[in-house]
Amino acid sequence: MSKAPKTSAGNFFEDFRLGQQIRHATPRTVTTGDVAVYNGLFGPRFAVQSSDTFARAVGYPRAPVDDLLVFHIVFGKTVPDISLNAVANLGYADCRFLKAVYPGDTLNAVSDVIGLKENSNRKTGIVYVRTRGYNQDGAEVLSYVRWVMLRKRDENAAPPGELVPELPKDIAPAKLGAACPPINTAGYDNVLAGSPHRFGDYRVGEKVDHSAGVTVEDAEHMIATRLYQNTARLHFDHFTGSQGRFGRRLIYGGHAISLARSLSFNGFANAFHVTAINGGRHVAPLFAGLTVFAWSEVLAAADIPKRNDVGALRLRTIATKDRLCADFPFRSADDYDPAVILDLDYWVLMPK
Amino acid sequence: MSKAPKTSAGNFFEDFRLGQQIRHATPRTVTTGDVAVYNGLFGPRFAVQSSDTFARAVGYPRAPVDDLLVFHIVFGKTVPDISLNAVANLGYADCRFLKAVYPGDTLNAVSDVIGLKENSNRKTGIVYVRTRGYNQDGAEVLSYVRWVMLRKRDENAAPPGELVPELPKDIAPAKLGAACPPINTAGYDNVLAGSPHRFGDYRVGEKVDHSAGVTVEDAEHMIATRLYQNTARLHFDHFTGSQGRFGRRLIYGGHAISLARSLSFNGFANAFHVTAINGGRHVAPLFAGLTVFAWSEVLAAADIPKRNDVGALRLRTIATKDRLCADFPFRSADDYDPAVILDLDYWVLMPK
Amino acid sequence: MSKAPKTSAGNFFEDFRLGQQIRHATPRTVTTGDVAVYNGLFGPRFAVQSSDTFARAVGYPRAPVDDLLVFHIVFGKTVPDISLNAVANLGYADCRFLKAVYPGDTLNAVSDVIGLKENSNRKTGIVYVRTRGYNQDGAEVLSYVRWVMLRKRDENAAPPGELVPELPKDIAPAKLGAACPPINTAGYDNVLAGSPHRFGDYRVGEKVDHSAGVTVEDAEHMIATRLYQNTARLHFDHFTGSQGRFGRRLIYGGHAISLARSLSFNGFANAFHVTAINGGRHVAPLFAGLTVFAWSEVLAAADIPKRNDVGALRLRTIATKDRLCADFPFRSADDYDPAVILDLDYWVLMPK
């Protein structure tokens, strides 16, 4: 009999080492079934992902899988190894979508520990990982850095190392678009896509209220989070959660990102591809029963070197709970508006 | 920068014109994933749609997509353009299913404005549209008329036209069955289909209690409605809804239709295809937490010219909330029984 | 017009006969969509079912459908004929998975009445059936016995027969593994599968706490149960249920089995296949809002004759509601711990 425990309690801060590489379980074949469940939960309407016919007309071999579904599946694999004992998911950086994923592709994930920093209280520490998602051919489909605050198993354990990596605040336009084939902009039908506004129609500083709101149910976020095979317990266990800090289940932060992305269709219907995420902050927790609204600001508009088909818009999307966004709630003085739950900084592609 | 607003607030009564044609976003490839989500939400058991093997034995190339799922997806596309500012969805007429839809087909929708009538209060008006759904080959799969009451943006705006179209009260048998291939009635296995009763076993006036009830949850109707990419806000936004007329989210009327259709299996298991909808009325709103029951009456039984394989039954299906249907609740004096939520008049096909 | 009633009220005790064979409606093509909905509801992470690539590397042609999803679909078909009037689902025996099921396969089910026993109160009786599930080629994929207590329609009806069948308490190792192709154990990647522990690493008597808990929502168990086309009314009808014994909807017993199986990944990640169920008892009802935990004990470890690739572990998995399992709650004196809801005795396969 093996001496290793059968039940994994997850890793604690002192279990990580700089340079350590972790291959994650469980490989996952993504199917049109996963896409349908995702569509039922979030209702995205971007035409490229919705229609094989539309996708082919603009240059894809068929409708690709929604970028955020790819992100959530890759992220989900890392949870049992990286963040089962997380106190907080602190941030994301340098997230780039590198290759389109299609139904039938099988995803797996590998993480490298690129930073460690014990907190001064010696009870917790921050782990930085670079996670890469791969398809069945070994091609990299996604790469991102995230950092989480983890508990130590033993407060007296020596820090496992100390290095705070330098991370880019944003991703340069030259690094965008890798997952997007050449787009036939003449074949891109604005009417079917739902908006006359293409890349050139947006200006930096423009703010758009996405207007609609969507209430979240416990069944929904649990179905979504299980679909990603994300096992973080605080999303699923009301019994334990009811005795804890929030008194209930906490919703996976990625749920708010997907809700906000779907809402953003009203204003950015032609932003058919999320090509990169510069950073994101889950400003406040989201719980079932609350209604999510969102608005976005165009932070930048960039050409991508050697591409005349698409341009990149850098967006800040702010999501709120139980708070309409017609007046673009964001920050007051030094802090976020108390209704804000998400501050996401990302690049989308639009046809020119 | 384009001057058109980025966020669509939907169309108001005075935005429509007689003869106007609207091509709707977003094309949608229907997959076995969509079918599975639909099955999880409604639990239909009609053998033709459930089994590729059964479908092939009777003459289909494979299991077709449930007729009502096709209806909901086509309907959903029209919402952002037609009914985002609807006060009420008043009725349907002349709805015919024209071609079977299979997983892999891509649906899109086009509507023609065929009628306009301002109400005497000048605050609202009624818009009549003929909506057609098409597959990726441009073949028409569905055609129906609906009329909705819309708010005016500006009460002083001139009426955009006035024409109340003549609509058929029912669809003639000669127009039925277009989406149904020739059925091999000898290959149709009554036992696997769940009932010994074929077309000839029903008589006009016969009433059938479907007996079971099903409670609706908010997560369910929202997942369904998003699956159809139907964006009507009152189904999703509890925050705004809680301050409104009903104090909560209102369930998409089509949800009750699908629930009633699934319940009707117990009594009409061999009604394998909804071929047309003569008309339908959402008599009262449905909310989460209520339990839906249903019963049906055979209004007519008709042969279809030149077809010996199937006959058509015209059914009235009544759905109720929190009310058993053993005594067939319908109308008392001039009004509906207060428990009735749906009065649907439609044609189904049954093997002879 | 046929004289048989159109609405089925289900069978009562006196409607069954020894030796009677019942072919059940509705045949069902299982798709990757069904798999995705199942994954969203239960979050299984066993690599063989999750990944086509992993499945091929170990010897399957592609990822097979989760064994319990196959069980639930076959079981669901029997409900309208066998258990619509069940007072209680008393037990299972001799359940063997005989052939792997893949997306695209069509399942149907046939039951033989193998036992009948009227209860002394003459109001109810017990019916024993052997149910077999078949694929589209007529190959048997699953076989099991279950017995249910049914009401009599007429208390004065004569007992329809009396025979209590002898049922095996457990299934011999020689009968295991029929649905499992030869496994290439060298191609089985422990890291991707999520655990270093193979067959030889477990010892009889070993207990494992699966540690995590998952709360059940009404929307979830209804979606699952409809996905299986299981029509037992007490799972769906809150209106009637609120006036009954439990005051609410009762969750399908199989829901707890699937939850426990998914939780058991943490401890038995390489138990990639449920090959047989010796018996199971739904010790107490489960309701929405409760949180399910689970632990397992290794009851036996057996070689399978002529197979060197995999071994069989006999597990008892205990699921509880609102009760952590670190101390392995099971029985106190002669009765189960009041938190226990499920006692399942089954065989899983693990690579050697």
Describe this protein's structure.
With 352 residues, the first copy, chain A, is α+β, with helices and mostly antiparallel strands. The first copy, chain A, is 19% helix and 31% strand. Chain A is built from 8 helices and 14 strands. In chain A, the strands form 2 sheets. In chain A, strands 1, 2, 3, 4, 5, 6, 7, 8, 9, 10, 11 and 14 form a 12-stranded antiparallel sheet that branches. Chain A has a two-stranded antiparallel ribbon with strand order 12-13. In chain A, a hairpin with a 2-residue loop joins strand 12 and strand 13. In chain A, helix 1 packs antiparallel against helix 6. The longest helix of chain A is centred in the first third of the chain and has 17 residues. The mean pLDDT of chain A is 96. Chains in contact: A-B, A-C, B-C. At the B-C interface, helix 1, helix 3, helix 5, strand 8 and helix 6 of B face strand 2, helix 1, helix 6 and helix 7 of C.
